[in-house]
Amino acid sequence: MYDAPAGSDVCTGVDVKIVIPDDGIIRIESTRLFADSDGSPCRRFVGRVFLATEIDSVVIAPAMAEGFTPAIELRFDAAQHSLRHVLEQVAALLDAAPGSAPGMEVPSALTALDRHGAVHYHRYGQRVTGWKVISERVGMIKLENRVLYRKAVLCEAIERELMSVLGVDRYETSSRDCCAKIDYDPRQLSPVQIIDILDGALANAEHPDRLDPLDLDLAICTASLPLAAVAQFAMPALLPVSAALFAYTAIPSFRGAYGVLFKERRLGVDVLDSIVVLGCLATLHVFPGAILAWCLSLGRYLVRRTEDNSKKLLLGAFGKQPRYVWLVKDGIEIEMSLDRLDKGDIVAVHTGEMVPIDGIIVEGLAMIDQHALTGESVPAEKGIGDRVFASTVMVAGKIHVAVERSGGETATAKIAQILNDSAGYKLASQHKGEQLADKAVIPTLCLGGLALTTLGPPGAVAVVNSDLGTGIRMAAPLAMLSTLALCAQKGVLVKDGRALDLLCQVDTVLFDKTGTLTRERPEVGRVIAANGFRPLQVLRLAAAAERRFHHPVALAILQKAAEQNLRLPLTDATQYKVGYGITVGIDGHRVRVGSRRFMELEGVPLTREVEEALHEVHREGHTMVMVAVDDQLGGALELRASIRPEVRGIVQGLRERDIRHIAIISGDHEAPTRKLAEELGMDRYFAQVLPEDKADYVEKLQHEGRKVCFVGDGINDAIALKKANVSVSLRGATSIATDTAHVVFMEQSLGKLCELRDIARDLNRNVRNSWLMILAPNLACIGGVFTLGFGIGASVVTNNIAALAALANGLLPMRRVAELQAERRHILEMELRQSGLLRDVGTQGPPRGLAADFMRGEPLAAPGNANAPYPYRTGLAAD
User: Fold this and answer.
1) How far apart are CA 26 and CA 33, in angstroms?
2) Taking Cα atoms as reference points, which of 432, 510, 547, 439 lies closest to residue 685?
3) Could you write out the DSSP letters of every residue in 550-591?
4) CA atoms within 13 A on the CB side of 620
5) Contact predicate 367/380, CB 8 Å
6) pLDDT at 617
7) pLDDT digit string (tens) for 201-239?
8) Directed axis angle between helix 753-787 and helix 432-439, to 10°?
9) pLDDT at 871 over 70
């Protein structure tokens, strides 16, 4: 027994029993201290004992039954530390006076709880966590936490958190293995920061009370194989047991056959599989039947993997969405959850933030990027009384907005609901592998019927077992999974694998103009001078005034100034203000930069040449920024849409890949749309098209007999994206567009469009080759049944060899995936070696310099870089 002294603030007056159950384990029992694993006494105790550097982990074991005492097990390396030394260290820490050793911070027990109610804490550097490091190298860490066991919702919560963290390259979670594997950039993120993120995700997640049901389909099918082999060839007495297990594993096939026959009213490969199962049971050939069941189960598993991977990759296609807003109450901004807002509440929106709600501006002036919602390429000026919409972005200024609609009531959410209601079109199309498999059903049944009449039941089973559908059902999904992985490595998210099939049939590509063919940032065209000023002088003053801004218009002006090698003068920050334009002091002059409306408000008259240019620019669908010096107009800058540099090469590449018709659709004016179509060599253009009418033009092209691929990025494109045979969106587009599109390019570039067409053709070729690999040996086997007396054993060998060959063929794209991954790792290692980071981390002995910073939790930075980025800010800690 250990009686804590009166000075101890951890266990004052508490009897503690110490037991040594094994080497490296100290068991401390106390009902009062450890009855509540998340209580303050228990957490203070754990935090205090972790101050002993010898302690690697702590397990809090609850009272499992009456008569058992709650306990804590302290675990250490018995080979490195003696029991006496560890006991002395722990005792000294527990005996310390209150406040002298506050202890390490301990996360909630909920983040480290296993399914039996025990809590597992581990040490990582100077942090206590529920995560145990399984393996680690620079740029990769694999962790285990038993709280994940059979709780997929917790894995999803972790993935949602990781998707928006700068520096996280890839991640995998498994509720079955309780693991999370994360590849990261060590220059931007450290392992301690990653563990902090994971702990935060688990602390904020909703923990389910029940475990997820076990999916034992493939495991049972695998276990049935040796039993069927023994029963078939060695112990016939086991045939009834093996047959019963085989029948159980075949239940999914029977369900599929019922759905195909009575719901879809057609003959599918599930019907053929069910006939084979019944034939194997009737003739007691359970071993070939068990092989069939295993192949079918593997195919179902691969299809699920395809869907799960697509959903996981989809998370990374979305940018951060506002989950919290700044509520203005009594002049104070209070952060609160978006779903707690009421109509009429006042919300503050700052520069760079996404507008979280639909509402009316009641205070402030701002420039808002609405291209995602309206297709406008230039930010719109908004002031008091103007309406703003959710999913638009503040590029300058600050506003207070009165809430009209939030959450599911916003215009964005309503459009999303309309799209969800019309999602049924996908059900009509089938995967190419299923189509090929279904085509083989009737010929196989006919041949089986012929064998039944001429050779009897064993011959019929041998023929039907040599079916052409089972192998392709396994090979085609695997080829799809491999191709999806290849696309992901190349920065292309394919949300629906059937889009790759359809892409091979596409002969028409319809591009949305704004944000797709053109960049969000405009470019400066003409510079018009007035009142004796020179064009470069006007550009220099405008660039100096816009230097502190980062919205698209400012960046366009600054880019033009950089191209002209202009040196920008200093500005007087005391005269710096934002409205419909900006006012700033430069070289003793008052310089104002903004719209025509801003000039009118400031009383600055426009000259005749600027008025004429303004009318001409508006006819072409462009805009102008005015520059005033003191009380007279100095000139104006033309802003026009900037064509993406890769577009011309994309158009040429599509022509070379048999795309016969390329068109533009835009809500912009006739003149600029026609001009762009002529510049790019388009076959057709559609101008001044309202957002709700874009889908009609897609249908118009389809009625002409064309297979249409629509490429767009805004909410106003969403219904057109839905109607097209294949739809493509760019990363950085709205969540509605990326939710609707079949394909999302992870880069804000069209550069992958031609490569995607090539990948789709390669997939089509891969499935065709798999089909030939299955067709040839199985047809030979069927011929052998009729001419050479082949039996069920021969059909099993040929059918499964063909299936394995097709399986290997389906994996071919994974070779390219592995090459890309190895190339990426090599580039990262070379960059780390050049900056000296990899050498420092790998140094023997205690870490020093950068390596020491890395282990303390600092992200690695190049030597001499005092401003290394800290990319992740958690809401649980103060900035």
Assistant:
1) 16
2) 510
3) -SHHHHHHHHHHHHTTPPPPPEEEEEEEESSEEEEEETTEEE
4) 16
5) yes
6) 83
7) 899 888 988 898 888 888 999 999 999 999 988 998 999
8) 20
9) no
Mean pLDDT, the chain, rounded, equals 79
In the three-class reduction of DSSP (H, G, I as helix; E, B as strand; rest coil), residue 205 is classed as coil
Q: Which residue has the tokens 């049901």?
A: 213
For range 666-677, the mean pLDDT: 82
Residues 6 or more apart whose Cβ sits within 8 Å of residue 345: 327, 402, 403
Q: Are 802 and 808 in contact (CB under 8 A)?
A: no
Structure tokens at 188: 């931007």
Residue 61 contacts residue 70 (beta carbons within 8 Å): yes
Distance CA 573, CA 570 (A): 9
* pLDDT band with cut points at 50, 70 and 90 for residue 628: very high
Ranking 144-148, 259-263, 632-636 by mean pLDDT, the lowest is 259-263
Rounded to an integer, what distance in angstroms lies between the CA atom of residue 448 and that of residue 271? Answer: 13
Give dist(CA 178, CA 531) in Å, integer.
72
Q: What is the C-alpha separation between 708 and 725, in angstroms, rounded?
A: 5
Mean local confidence (pLDDT), 735-757: 74
Q: Looking at residues 441-469, what average pLDDT do you find?
A: 85
Report yes or no on whether pTM surpasses 0.70. Answer: no
Q: Measured between alpha carbons, how far is 619 from 195 in angstroms, rounded to an integer?
A: 56
Q: Looking at the DSSP assignment, which residues form a beta bridge with residue 424? A: none
Distance between CA atoms of residues 187 and 189, nearest Å: 6
Retrieve residue 349's tokens.
């929106």
Region of poorest pLDDT, from 97-101, 491-495, 576-580, 774-778: 576-580
Q: Could you tell me the two tokens for 130? A: 């529920």
Return the SS3 of 245.
Answer: helix
| Token pair for 598 | 């801003």
Question: In this structure, what token pair is assigned to residue 637?
Answer: 């800058």
Please list, in sequence order, all residues whose beta carbon lies within 8 angstroms of the beta carbon of residue 61, skipping any fewer than 6 positions away.
70, 71, 72, 73, 118
Query: Where would I find the H helices in 456-577?
Result: 457-465, 469-489, 498-503, 535-546, 552-563
- Per DSSP, 113 falls in state B
